[in-house]
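Example 4.3 (complexes with small molecules)
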Amino acid sequence: MKIFVTGGAGFIGSHIVDYLIGRGDDVVIYDNFCTGQEIFIKHHFDNQRFTLIKDDVLNFNALKKAMKDSDFVFHIAGHADVRGGYTDHDIDLKQNFMATQNVLEAMHQLNIKNIAFSSTSSVYGDAILHPTPESYPFEPTSLYGAAKANSENYIYTYAHYYDWNAYIFRFVSWIGERYTHGCIFDFMKKLKADSSHLYMLSDGTPKKSSLYVKDGVNAIFTIIEKSSEKINIYNLGHEEVTTIKNIADIVCDELGLKKVQYTFEGGDKGWMGDNKFVHLSIDKLKQLGWEPTVNIEEGIRRTVRYLKESSFLLNAR
Ligand SMILES: NC(=O)c1ccc[n+]([C@@H]2O[C@H](COP(=O)([O-])OP(=O)(O)OC[C@H]3O[C@@H](n4cnc5c(N)ncnc54)[C@H](O)[C@@H]3O)[C@@H](O)[C@H]2O)c1
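Answer. The structure with nicotinamide-adenine-dinucleotide bound is encoded below.
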């Protein structure tokens, strides 16, 4: 198989690429490196089956040229900062929605019929049903969630028009090696500047679920190998949830910081568009035989250890 991976130099995309190269596929990464890191993929540079194209998904002609002869597209590139859309109303429209439509149109023009897409728990917004099942309606509270929901609808329609196989993954927050954004990252950046004090955007009570990256990649390929719908929509998450304050406690403990003073700067949400309780049902995924192997606390500890060893990343974003 020749697999095309947009965003293959990013946190999640680079782990997908490792898996694909490991199973013997030809892989083309298409990435503009706006947040991607060469260090995440450079161990493949000498591999004959690996191709890297540095360009933008919004550059349709370059995208279509690069995608030619691919069998399967992983569309993982995106603007992954949920917060940004409140102050920049165009960024999710362009980087998450229009970018996805470019990918779909290029696939159609090249007659490629398989797509996997990185969607998000943010499509459910402030869901009132927990754990939230896949059947819950789209109620996004951020333009990020809205753009991902619109992208899902476009994927659904292209797949329906042209008889494609589509895999739509609604992720909770991923943690683990190569993690470069999110609250653990923010906490470590702040603690690097001042290890005695930690300012939090919320009151510490928002409850979130997280998924360790290797369990996440395993879930993706379990779904692709075992799910047999034409359009396969799955939550990827964890049975556990934890509060933002508890995440901060684990980060401080793993860093060996004993007396950090917390200042809570907000209410039960960290920012406009944030969701105070994110817990997705993973019953559908578990029916395929998948289980997470790493609990959330251990995942947070591994993330902290990774960022300690790769502290240059704390300055990269
Ligand atoms: N990390 C999470 O917890 C999480 C949760 C839910 C959904 N997602 C989604 O998963 C995907 C990957 O997230 P991530 O955490 O790996 O983020 P990331 O920022 O590490 O990776 C995104 C990659 O896409 C590339 N990219 C971005 N815009 C591009 C463009 N216009 N053209 C070409 N390349 C472009 C970046 O350079 C980067 O390599 C995103 O679509 C994100 O919305 C992530």
